[in-house]
Amino acid sequence: MRRYRGSYPLVALSMMALLHVLPDPVLGHERQVVGRFRLTIGWGEEPPFTGSKNFVAVAVSDAAGAPVTDSGGSLAVEVSFGDQRLVFSLQPAAERKGEFRAWLVPTRAGTYTFHITGKLRNQMIDTKATCSDSTFECVTDIAEIEFPTKDPSAGQLAERISREVPRAERAIEKATTAQNVALTGIGVAVLALAAAIGLGLLRVRRNS
Amino acid sequence: MPRRNLTVVILVTLLGVLSHSDAWAHAGLRSSDPMAGATLGDTPTRVRLTFLEKPEPSLSIIHVLDTRGTAYQIGPTEGVAGDPQSLVVRVRHLDRGVYIVSWRVISALDGHATNGSYAFGVRATPTGAAIAAVTFPSGTPPLEMLARWLFLVGLIVMLGGAAANVARFGGTSDLKLAVGGWVLAVAGLLFLAEAQRRNAATSFAHLLVTSVGKALIWRALALLIAGGALLMTRRAPQPQARRAAMAAVALSALAVMAVHVASGHAAAGRWPLVSISTQWAHFGAAGVWLGGLAALLLGTRGAPSTAKTAVVRRFSPIAAVGLLVVAATGTLRALNEVSSWAEFTNNGYGRVLIAKFALVVLVAALGARNRWRSVPAVPTNLGPLRWTAGGELALACAALAAAAALGTMPPPAAARLVAPPVFDVSGADFATTVRVRLTTGSDQPGPNRFAVQIVDYDAKTPVRAELVSLRFIPLDDPDFPPTSLALAASPDGSYTGSGANLAFDGRWRVTVLIERTSGSSQVPLELEVGSTLQFVSIERIPGQAPKYTVALTTGDSVRISPDPERAGPSKIYVTCFNRFSDAREIEHLMVTIAAGDGSARPQAVQRLDGSRFVVDVDLQPGKNKVMAIAKTSDGTRLRAAVTLSVPGD
Q: Mind listing the pLDDT tens digit for each residue in B22-37?
């Protein structure tokens, strides 16, 4: 045992180097093998919250586990939510070797799907990952961590306004109709009153 | 008697007939494991059903079937040691799929059959109407109705004949009347035995060794004693000895009634002794009143005489007292069992009850006519009394038939009890796009079934969503991570799912996430999951703050001490102990207070030492529910709740 003691610093340095070279173990991400590459897909910031700046993170490594820093082509991610979708370009991250990022602000809580396409060192990439309990985290409403007051998001406010405007219009329409009916009623009442007074006067005159 | 008093009598009678003279409940299903609609991750090893009444295991059957009808239960249905209201059946390995639990139980109290079915899934979600637990009686057998009617009429006539002889308002036919009643009661008992044998679908030999059969044997024994007393009466040479023997007959009839009531649904009430006593008094008073009236009619045959006038006048106050007791005991039973007017009109039971009510009102009206018209005319003319009393008895027979019918029908109270306490909460999203209603299968922690109905906020039409999920956050336990549950669309338009996400008691925020193609909406809801009853000991020593010590199932205890226990600023001391009453090291403590019916509010907690904490609070007059949730270093969660009754000053 004693003869190995001198090699401890060397082992530690090797471990550090290995940790630096290997992509970080990422929890809450989906791992896929596409051809000769390993892709780890998820949100950059987890848990993801609505209204917070985040990014799609795709870590790429080769079969040996070494990070792929040069894609040798271009990668893109189509982010979809419901029937809405938008394509973002995946850019290599300077901070983390082998990771490609696409920045976005998720504005709605729920299920997001990342469809990654492009070319990696002459290999076509076409793979999808959807958030779930077993893959990566779905987007949560920011209100969950808001304190002391849970303010509505801009999207919720916009939706509320879009709902309130037609309600207000309908209310105005009803009020206008009611006003017209009231005016008509008043008119009819005035006419009836005038007729009654006229008839009364006529009767008085006849009697006299 | 002034007219005002007549009104009082009629009003009391009206209240009285709100009751009924027989069964109030059936062995309806209270809970089940697995619960209805549950989606299990793995096969259960057994199915356990808990009923409202004690079932008779040897006469009850539980089947566990797949959708093709293949049976999966192993061995017979058995009782559960220490839980007489539960039955259990073992099942073999269940593969992925939906299974139906079909059961038919016989109540150990009255022999009534009840059946039902529900569905659960193993790695599959049951859908449709089958998921709901269904409880219904196996029909209303005419034989049982006839049996109960004969039995009731027989007992009432027997008691009336005996009472007439003892109280000297009858005549020479008292014994014959009592014997006739005895014969009717015996016939009713025989029919009842056959009806219960048919209900249980078994042989007499098997039935008689069960609790249902034993109740029949006890009734028969009491009737045998009554029969013996009747024989003694016939052979007694002296009128005094005859009267003593008739008193024995009356006591025997009351004993049969007591056995009958104790073997019925009155014994299944919340306060069985009170219910049985009330029901027994109800029967007894009806026997003296109506049976006595029959004896009076037989004893006053022929021309009017002074003796007959005296007899009629002697019976009149006895009948009035009998009517009042019937009304009072009936009122008590009604208050015990009926909770709303809607229950009278919503089902067959309620309608029969209304029919009985109408009949008893007519009987009381005829009784009043007798009291104020016929009785004064008795010295010269017995005709009006005979006609009116005859009508009274005919209507009473019809009322007893209604009572017998009620005895075979499931009352609304039973149906009300069948529905276990659940959560039913509603809310809307901030954007006011949707309204959501969340219902659960239980209000207890653990496995649960969740159903969400979504409608448009304005149009109130169902909203179709791509995905619906629930997110559960325990508000009083920040260490516990949020969990989610995806719901599946059901054919009825709702979204359902099962899970144990409400893992423990306390306040939970449940956010309904509705994802549509155009966007998503979140509806936050809040639930307070209850807990099992905790034993709380209260120590009040003059000059010291009261100490509420809550014993927990873990063996630990939590002491909550308000100082002072009055409205306004106060301090609450919380101390945790282990099973040896030593101080329990606590890592984190959360205290919430809910005043009145208000929501629980977290309080600022200050640590005094490893196991003691103090909270500055502002107590409100009235009820203040204090809840303490402590986390120990080994991760054990101690939860204690006490309700302080804070005086106003």
A: 333 455 677 788 877 7
